[in-house]
Amino acid sequence: MPSQGTDFRMPHVVVINPTSSAEITAGIQETLDQAARRWGVTATAVTSYGGPRTIESDDDGRAAVSPLLATAGQHRADAYVLATFSEAGLDELRAAAPVPVIGIAEAALTSAMAHSRRLGVISTVPMATFRHELYWAKLGVSGRVVADLAIGRSEFDLGSRDAANAVLVAGRELVDRRGAEAVILGCVGLGHLRGPLADELGVPVIEPCAAGVAMAAMALADFPPDVMPPRTQPAPPPASYTPEPAYDPGPGRGYAPEPQYGRYS
């Protein structure tokens, strides 16, 4: 990171959830806090409230682009991380933003490839795996991905013990039968399972939002010492922009896993 000179400031990374699901954003923020400390940046997860509830189809991805661009324009940042494994809107945000823009799928793949040549991916719904395969081909890494296994659950159904068991079954299939040497969590809602899953499988498990923050920090470190790209400034909100309300899950609600994860039994 830039050395501490007279103009030093802590780099700030804005992680955009391109869906309107504030509970997902809350889960992302929990993942970011540790990653940001590790890489010497600050990181804030924000919600694109004008976006779709979730991104499970190509239509969802297209619907997310304009609202996420508007959301990015409302948050000052030294770098952006786009928190969707589908990478919807990534090219458009890179074209529009004057600072580094990181996609979490690309960041997770880069991190996993540093560990091994044979990668496995755990996804939520089968439809997502088709989009992922197209993206692997675009990046030229299809031959490195031994399998992308869907557990058949939406991102709003990942906090239960049953979901954790489904993730573990998929992880064991990837490692024990498919020969994966590293596993990527192909959804932002699986971050709370990274540590327990790595302990169970005995291989690196990559959480994509944390990988995105790491790549953003490294991109900022490429600038000369004591020189940072100009931090983006909030633009006047467009007429269609929906401002971000305070998130209050209320009693018994919100995005939170069951507290007891260990052996998944």
Automatic annotation (TrEMBL):
The annotated region (Disordered) lies at 226-265
Recorded hits in InterPro entries, A to Z, give: Asp/Glu/hydantoin_racemase (IPR015942), Hydantoin_racemase-like (IPR052186), Iso_Racemase_Enz_sf (IPR053714)
Q: Pro residues bias located where?
A: 226-240
Question: What Pfam families would the database entry show?
Answer: Asp_Glu_race
Q: What family does the entry list?
A: Belongs to the HyuE racemase family.
Q: What is this protein called?
A: Aspartate/glutamate racemase family protein
Natural source organism: Kineosporia mesophila
